[in-house]
Automatic annotation (TrEMBL):
The entry's keywords: Membrane, Transmembrane, Transmembrane helix
Species whose genome carries this gene: Desulfosporosinus acididurans
Membrane spanning residue stretches: 44-65
Protein name per its UniProtKB record: DUF5808 domain-containing protein
Residues in DUF5808 domain copies: 25-49
InterPro entries listed in its UniProt record: DUF5808 (IPR043831)
Superkingdom as given in the UniProt entry: Bacteria
Amino acid sequence: MSRRKWTNEEIEEYRKEHGAIYYNKEDSNIFVPKALGIGWTLNWANPISLVLILVPFGLVFFKYFH
């Protein structure tokens, strides 16, 4: 399967079937619009989203606990 950027309409349809947490391996977007409210959330199937979360925690950990 090739990954491509999904449109906002496709993302909404995916959420109707799979729930609020966005985990879509076929979508190459890192940030997607939130299901409720204003703003953006992460596509948790994209490996870059994991890096975006772990790097700040790692920096804080090494600054205060090293």
